[in-house]
Each structure stands twice: as C-alpha cells, then as structure tokens.
UniProtKB/TrEMBL annotation:
One Gene Ontology cellular component: plasma membrane
Record function comment: Probably functions as a manganese efflux pump.
Protein name: Putative manganese efflux pump MntP
Keywords: Cell membrane, Ion transport, Manganese, Membrane, Transmembrane, Transmembrane helix, Transport
Length: 179
C-alpha cells in the first residue's frame, strides 16, 4: 500500500505540468471529443516515456534530468509565444487546438520529466506495471481536468483567453528553465 501511495504522489506531481498547460489550451474553442483524445494521448506518453526511462535507467547519467527539463521549458516557451502572437494576428478565424504533430509535441513536452523519473524507478526496481498505470491514468485525468476548467474560463474571458493561455504556457516554460 505504501508503494501505491508513493507512486500516486509521484504520478500526481508529474501530471501537474499537463494540468497547468491544459488550462491554457482549454481556453481555446475545444470540443469534448478533442478533450477526451488529448487526455488519452498525454496519458499514453506518461506511460511510454517512463517505460523507456526504466529500460534505460542503468545507462543514463544524472545530468539527463536537467537536460529534459530545459528542453521541455523551451518547447513550452515556444508554444506559449506562438499563442500570444496568434492573439495579435489579424482575423477572426477559429484557432485550433493541438492536433497531429502539435499534439504529439505537446504530449512529449509535458511528459519529458516522467522519462527521468522512469530512469530513477528503473534503477531502484519499483513495480513497473503499477507505476506506468498510475502515471498514465493520473496524467490523463489531470489533462482532462485542466482542459475542462480552461474551457469554462475561456468562455468568461472571451477573445483574451488565447493570450492568457499563451501566457500560462510561457510562464510554465520559464519556471521549468529558471526555477
């Protein structure tokens, strides 16, 4: 039972970046089907990356964790900057939520830290199946929650919701890089 609680707490911490970035994305016009799909893809990445991390756990140095956070921070800053720039562009066209390669990039970005945790879990021999199921399930639920809350907030904020969402992504990326 202690292992379940510990792994759940780790999974929750890993999923919080998916939650906070999903708040910003949810502020765009997004359908429930897209919300369901995005949460499933993020959850899948939160299973795959720790799995690969566990497999590579004995071969990667401690410095990889810092590199993964830097890459994730830079990708979030780029995504946030693009959203802010899109707000200032002319036109009332419907701006889209991440799909295709953008969704894969988003999922990879919010899941990079789970790779380094997988490295550690691989070294210490934690229950792989339990850890992977908890990581994926909790990340998916947090992503769905962030998107749904963002969707409600986006209705209140109107046209400014995309700029606010971009600021959230930008701030989180800066936090990963500098704090």
């Amino acid at each position: 039972m202690g292992e379940v609680i510990t792994l759940s707490m780790i999974a929750f911490a890993l999923g919080m970046d998916a939650f906070s970035t999903s708040l910003g994305i949810g502020m765009r016009s997004i359908r429930l089907r897209q919300i369901l799909y995005m949460g499933a893809v993020v959850g899948g990445f939160h299973v795959l990356l720790p799995f690969f991390g566990m497999m590579a756990g004995r071969f990667v140095t401690d410095t990889f964790g810092a590199i993964a956070l830097m890459i994730g921070g830079l990708l979030l800053i780029i995504a946030g900057g693009q959203m802010i720039l899109a707000f200032f562009q002319e036109g009332d066209e419907m701006r889209s939520v991440p799909s295709g390669w953008q969704l894969l990039l988003f999922s990879l970005t919010v899941s990079l830290d789970s790779f380094s945790v997988g490295l550690t879990l691989g070294i210490y021999g934690a229950g792989a199946l339990l850890a992977l199921l908890l990581f994926g399930g909790i990340a998916a639920c947090l992503t769905w929650s962030g998107l749904l809350i963002g969707k409600k907030a986006g209705k209140w904020l109107g046209a400014y919701s995309e700029a606010l969402g971009g600021c959230i992504l930008l701030a989180f990326g800066l936090k990963l890089l500098f704090f």
